Amino acid sequence: MNQKCLRCQLVFEQTIKWNDLWSLKRIFPEVVCEKCQSQFERCDVSQQIICRYCQHPIEQGDSCLDCQHWLKLYDDNYLQQESIYYYNAAFQEWIIDYKYHGDTRQAAVMLAILNDYYHKYKDYQWIILPSSPKSLQQRGFIPAEYLLQQAKIPYTLLLNYKGDGKKQAKKNKQERLALEQPFELNLKAKLSKNILIFDDVYTTGTTLMRAKQLLFQHGVNHCMSLTLARDLLV
Ligand SMILES: [Zn+2]
Ligand SMILES: [Zn+2]
What is the distance between the alpha carbons of residues 91 and 202, in angstroms, rounded to a whole number? Predict the structure, then answer.
């Protein structure tokens, strides 16, 4: 069947893999041509020198500067983080179209890979981070949530956004630097022992750390985070 590639717009022929037909997994039709797909680069733990915690490429050692910083504040239970792709040019163009330009059709590009990860981590309770009312108003959707909905991956709304009741500009410097807890637990939701927080991009990890802190304080044993990619800040 001919299909227009969601990334380069060229027409390509969709193929069906026999393995997929025999497996019990849901099949997501190819929406990206082979050439565009090959430009998304999977984090390969064996191929490159990457941080053992967040899969960020590093020059030397076994962990990146960000993770070394987190390890001074938290134990390594907090650093269970997996990234699916490298944040390369192809990924960056995709996230700009999807998240910042609001082209929600682009979600389809990630559904097959998300389905694979859902099978890998199906014993986990998947949750997302709630958006602040401001970013929800700007975007009109929560990018991570929309991906899970499209991939038909069940998730729980375990966290509520509470903010801290103060506008950023009204805070003094110390208040801004303090590790504030922007979330609260949704008391109506059931809490499992193993939790997976899914997010689109891992940047500084600050919000994920706060969410994990809250969950650990409420008796969660194991909490990992999974993101499509790990952003490069420099
Ligand atoms: Zn293409
Ligand atoms: Zn790291």
Answer: 13
- Continuous H helices in the chain: 18-22, 34-39, 65-73, 89-95, 111-120, 133-139, 143-150, 173-177, 206-217
User: Ligand 1 centroid to 92 CA: how many Å?
Assistant: 15
Ligand with minimal distance to 205 CA: 2
How would you write the pLDDT of the chain (234 residues) with one tens digit per residue?
889 999 999 999 987 766 666 666 677 889 999 999 999 999 876 767 888 888 888 888 999 988 999 999 999 899 999 999 999 999 999 999 999 999 999 999 999 999 999 999 999 999 999 999 998 999 999 999 999 999 999 999 999 999 865 555 566 655 554 558 899 999 898 899 899 999 999 988 889 999 999 999 999 999 999 999 988 664
What's the gap in Å between 78 CA and the centre of ligand 2?
12
The pTM score is 0.89
Element (H, E) at 86: strand 81-86
CA of 36 to the centre of ligand 1 (A): 4
What is residue 11's three-state secondary structure? strand
Task: Compute the distance from residue 96 Cα to the ligand 1 centre, in Å.
Answer: 16
7 CA distance to ligand 1 middle (Å): 5
User: Closest by alpha carbon to 152, among 192, 118, 103, 200?
Assistant: 118
| CA–CA dist 150, 146 (Å, integer) | 6
State the Cα angle at 223 between 230 and 84, rounded to 5°: 25
**Cα of 180 from ligand 2 centre, angstroms:** 22
